[in-house]
Amino acid sequence: MGKGIRTPTGEVVHLRTSFTVQDKIEAFYTGGDVVLSADGQHLFCACGSAVKILCVATGRVEHSVEEEEDMVTAFSLSPDSEHLVVAWRSLLLRQYNWTNEKCTRSWKGHLGPVLSMAFDPTSTLLATGSSDSSIKVWDCKKQFCTHNFRGSNGMVTLLQFHSDPDALRLFSSAIDCAIRVWDLRTSRCIHVLEGHVSAVTCLGFAGETLLSGGRDKVIHVWDNSTGALKKTFPVFEAVESLVVVPKGLVVVPGELAGEAEVMFATAGDKGVIRLWDASTGQNLHSLQPLTGLTITETPGGSSENPPEGGYTGLLLCSQLGALAGVTYDHNIIFYSLKEPEVLKQFIGYPDEILDMRFIGEGEGHLAVATNSEQVKVFEQSTLSCQLLSGHSGIVLCLDSSSPPGGQLLGTSSKDRSIRVW
Question: Do 117 and 87 meet the contact criterion of CB atoms below 8 Å apart?
Fold first, then answer.
């Protein structure tokens, strides 16, 4: 207790000089990989020198895997959510039991930083791709290297196993924009799929059909068995991620939905998640676009670097019936596939905090002004966030109406305006 203060009524009030943290809104994602656990309950996010594990239900960081004075270059979570393997800038690979945050194994396998990683569907094999142009496959249970593939031209930026575990095929792409198919039985490259003219960023499987997307603004459809290019669809944006969406999971308005045998979703620099028919290349539906988006176009429409705008990743959450879009400014937004609504939105990097106010019934929401034109409104129970867009300059200060936790919020900005929400 601090020193007592006597009130006008004569009562002595003791002020506390120390406080206990009851709750905390903190940065949990600063760019890089984002992975959703198999049960849809946890998000694994790269955050500088750590991988932070966020509970989707509460929006709070429950676990953190961290190494001091080292940076995360890539990580992968096994499909059974038991193995978390993280690659560090020191060239070490570490395997963790993420529930107790303990490292169970560490090893070094490449001459350069690991830039891409992928588990096979059985959670046994782990593939790692490096800036030294090599690809290695590791048996995580018996702890030895099973394959060492060479032949990629440049840094290996994308790895993915075939969705069928019996196929025993690994797909890779490097900065030469080609997709290589490696047969694990023969340890040879059996196909080189050439068609993209810019970086290949994502792959998707639907039976014997392979879908590939890149920053050249097209989707290629390949035959997995022969490696032949079947179709090419223009999507008119640099594609950063795609996922194949099960037919029964999505409700698409219109008559075209029933005709689509295979649907997939794309996300890119335009800030809109779109659903496509893999047979016809027709855009079936578009989810609501991002607000406050600034798009930086690249001359010529082709770039080896990520676009400065829109989405950088896309995840399928079957348990929630949702798609989760990862934005360029480190937000993660869950969109319902059944209704046109946002289920949740998490702010991965709040940035500098300039002002804040409790608002709403029971002070159940917290409005925060950060180094941004948008005001972030957090729901305290779930830490789901709503963005208020309207100002064209950085919001400097906030105030709420009386009594405390009122229904009105006032904001002032560098754009010389005051707005009441």
Answer: yes
Q: Is the pLDDT of residue 360 over 70?
A: yes
- Rounded CA-CA distance 179/169 in Å is 12
pLDDT digits (tens, 9 = 90+) for 52-105: 999 999 999 999 999 888 999 999 999 999 999 999 999 999 999 999 999 999
Q: How far is CA 225 from CA 123, 209, 238, 389, in A?
A: 24, 9, 27, 49
Is the pLDDT reported for residue 108 higher than 90? yes
Q: Decide: 286 and 338 in contact? Cβ < 8 Å.
A: no
Higher pLDDT, 338 or 357: 357
How many residues comprise the chain?
421
Say how far apart CA 290 and CA 266 lie, in whole Å: 14
Q: What predicted TM-score, i.e. pTM, was given to this entire model?
A: 0.87
The two structure tokens encoding residue 61 = 């960081």
CA distance 260 to 278: 7
